[in-house]
Amino acid sequence: MESYEILPIGVKLKRLREKYKLNQDSLAGNDITRNLISQIEHGKANLTRHAAEVMLKNLEKICTKKNIKIEEDIDYLIEDEVSQADKVLEKYIKELQDLIVYRDISFIDKLNEVEAFLVNWDIKDKKIAIFELAGDYFCSMNDFYKSSIYYEKARSLINIDMPTDNVVPIFRKLSMVYFYMGQYDYGAKCCEVALERFYDMDDKYTCIFLFNSSLCYIKLEEYYKALKKLCTLEKVIKKVNEKKYYEVLLQKAACFEALKNYGRSLDICNEILSVIDEKANEQYLMILINLAQLYIKLSEKEKAREILKSTLKNLANISKEFKLLPNMYFEIAKVYRELSDLEKAEEHYLKALKYSKKYSYYFLIDDILLDLIDMYAKQNENSKMADVKNEFFILSSKKDKINFKIMFKLIRFYLDKRDINSLEDIYEFSAKLI
């Protein structure tokens, strides 16, 4: 582990004399006093550029006679501790940037070293860069809790004088991480702050914050707020990103569906379907799933089944690395459940659970477990409910937080079964986290 030493100017001056075997009088010459050098070395006086030039001039004379090459220059002598620390942090940032691609413990080791160094140095722009890198690293590892902590550390250091382009990305990343954590209120607030504060930011970021805030409001079931954001976004997004434009329309359709305006939602979905290329597979699939759900709510189950067949056919072409794959499986499972095909519903819930765990989508795991509890309770599936209970324990341990909806549903099931052992398990586990 490489370590960096920060030297006060007085210490550097003393070491310079020791290296070249000079006393204070020799270094002072006739232009400055020996007493001044003594005061500088003891931190009682500042080293001016003029005094440094005199000392180096005297040093050069002496070393020339001794045929010794001088390695130091005036910039080295007069560089203060803050400037040295700033350069060290530049090196640390470069090291962290190099290590982040490996996604292993070496990044954390270096980060610990950097944070130990930062205890003594409050250089804000470097701190922000380091905390943002740490947030990026933990986000790439799907550790959204730690990622949010570092992004928040970076955000807390931002002031109005900092360039917008340097700080807006932190708000964008933070809003995304809060969404993945299921902290939708924080995600929405983060977007609102960015939209109000950075009025001169690039249109690209304005679109991102409008869209991210709408997603959070949808999850919070504040559909009119979401629609307001989406309508504002719709006016500008098509010029910036046509693919995103159709995502905006899809979210509008979801809002109208939630507000039970099924006709309006259906019109939007059909409008998108008429213009989007089937080869744009992910978007095409999301629209098909939405349509299937709409037809169920319109009591047209045969149409829903037909669309579901087309959905499954296209799903085979989706990459297993696609980040919205867990969401797709979850939504398909809900369609099967509405069609009373519980075997297929369970199959897709479990696939959704598998990929949600892979990406640490805690917000989605919560929803999956809630649906599985309802389904297994109706089917009287004791052993499968025990699996859900274990998943609940694992999820809660990772989040260090209890989802009370899941806990209460499990308690209700085991109360009905008079299963005291399982109730005690839930009590003992939950008591440790509450």
**CATH class term of the domain at 9-78:** Mainly Alpha
What percentage of amino acids are in beta strands? Answer: under 5%
Total number of helical segments?
A: 23
Determine the structural class based on helices, strands and strand pairing: mainly alpha
Give an overview of the whole structure.
The model has no long low-confidence stretch (mean pLDDT 92). The chain has 23 helices and no strands. Helix 21 packs parallel to helix 23. It has 434 residues and is mainly α. The chain has a domain at 9-78: lambda repressor-like DNA-binding domains (434 Repressor (Amino-terminal Domain)). Pfam families: TPR_8. One of its GO terms (molecular function) is DNA binding.
What are the defining features of this structure?
434 Repressor (Amino-terminal Domain), 23 helices, mainly alpha, elongated, about 425 residues
